[in-house]
Amino acid sequence: MAEEIKSLEELNSVVEGTAAVVNEDSFAPREPVRDALGRSYATGKRKDAVARVWIKPGSGKVTVNGKEMDKYFARPVLQMILRQPFQVAGVVGEFDVYATVKGGGLSGQAGAVKHGISKALQLYEPSLRSALKAAGFLTRDSRVVERKKFGKRKARRSFQFSKR
């Protein structure tokens, strides 16, 4: 009960503007999140694709749905998308990635794996968070396909108008 009263007093002092300045030291630093096997797990999403991603220290091998990255994502642009989080964080070739991805097309799947890798890297090594956040890799890209409306040919495209 004394704890609650103390916190209410602190709350009132904050509201009144008489609170002491909060030290940066009072905030606990982020702790690494790893499982028993030394891996970090994260879920990445993009469009309709959802990727489950595990990272662990290794030689830089990337496996997607049981296949090597260059076999699953044949286009160089998609492979480049998967390498971006490592380049921004400066840890190229230091982590092995195992990912399973479902839904969407190849481009959306590559974006989902990239999002998952970024989140897992940040959980494995919290000091990488600032670089990944500044690059915008921790934010889920919320753009999705707009639904088709009735009376329209597509989402917004109308049927061709004929005067006669």
Record the strand order, biggest sheet: 1-2-5-3-4
Number of E strands:
5
Percent of residues in beta strands? Answer: 15-25%
Radius of gyration over all CA atoms, rounded: 23 Å
The major pleated sheet works out as: 5 strands, mixed
- Look at the structure and give the mean pLDDT: 89
List the secondary-structure elements in sequence, H or E: HEEEEHHEHH
Helical element count? 5
Approximate helicity band? 25-40%
**Uncertain stretches of 5 or more adjacent residues:** none
End-to-end C-alpha gap: 81 Å
Assign an overall shape: flat
SSE-based structural type: alpha+beta
Describe this structure in words.
The chain has helices spanning 2-16, 69-72, 76-89, 106-124, 129-135; strands spanning 40-46, 49-57, 62-64, 67-68, 95-102. The protein contains five helices and five strands; from the N terminus they run αββββααβαα. The model has no long low-confidence stretch (mean pLDDT 89). α3 (76-89) runs parallel beside α4. The chain has 164 residues and is α+β, with helices and mostly antiparallel strands. It has a five-stranded mixed sheet.
